[in-house]
Fold this sequence. Notes:
The chain is mostly helical. The chain is about 70% helix and about 0% strand. The model has no long low-confidence stretch (mean pLDDT about 90).
Amino acid sequence: MGTEIDVFISNYTLVDPEIYQLWVEGHTASEAVSILNQRGLGQVTGASLELIASDVLDHYRTYSLLEKLLSNPNKLQEQLAFQIEPQTRQLLIEKYYDFDDVVVRELIGKKLSSKHRKDLDEVAEKTRVPLKSCRRQFDNVKRIYKMVEDMQGPVVQNIQNHFYLSEPLAKKYACIVFLACIRFETKRKLNHITFSCWKRCTEAIMDNWTNKLAGVDNFDTELDKDFFTELKDIKIMLEKEREHKQLVCLTLKATLLHKCYTDLDSNFKNYSRALLQPASNMHRPRDVKNMFLELNSLSDSLKQANWSGQELEIFLNGYTQCGFEIDVIRDSNSMKTLWEKYMTVISECLLAMY
């Protein structure tokens, strides 16, 4: 009588987070083996270098097969070829779509074309990020941008719905999409501005100057035309300059350092007009693209006067709050809203750039 044997066969996919990270970063299999060896993997596990190399190659083959699915996360969710736990599947997607801020900063302001993809070796050399990883990041940015640029609804939610990214990562991509849609000037004198600074600026604009607040299908990648039509009314603050200065100086005299207060007292006219200059130039949404060049000039002036970031923040808060006490703003709810939305973005962007 034969013996009964229970046999279980599985194609469960094992993912080693450390090896996967090395693969995502663009390291070759041999480079990954060397890195793992330097980290002491052989000593900890007792595995020989040959065994480590064999294991890395096996993982790399699996990740190469998965890459076609990762380029379309919906397919990864629906496929049956690989048995992957939900938690592992999320790790695969999140790490694959993660990016280096320095690499993406080089991509901002450029068209996501095949021509620029061919020039990524320059980006790799400048950022010291492997070329393979630069290409992955370029393709991911282009893929997400093409998918959501014309979609109605909140861009962060659209990205999460189609690519299953975490909210923090989706927000980073949303800023890239927004910068590409509005076509801000990001080069020339603005090369020093980091991606994290651009993220802070774009989030402020998306929250205050887009159709997200206008109720037009919740479109937060389009600027609110009505806001920019009304923005010309802010220029009336130029006529209230003397009154505004008195209020600001009285409010900040005991708060600012003496050197900054003296500089403010002497240069209030220049600083105030620089803060209001964008409002004078932004008659249409497309005019906003050069706003950062104007703010950068003000930033340079303040740095030359040795203002610290903390002192700048104190000044901007005082300047904004005192504006609410000027009669043309105090007596009009629409002007209060306009002033608040305008100064919130200007202040946030200037502080981010400083």
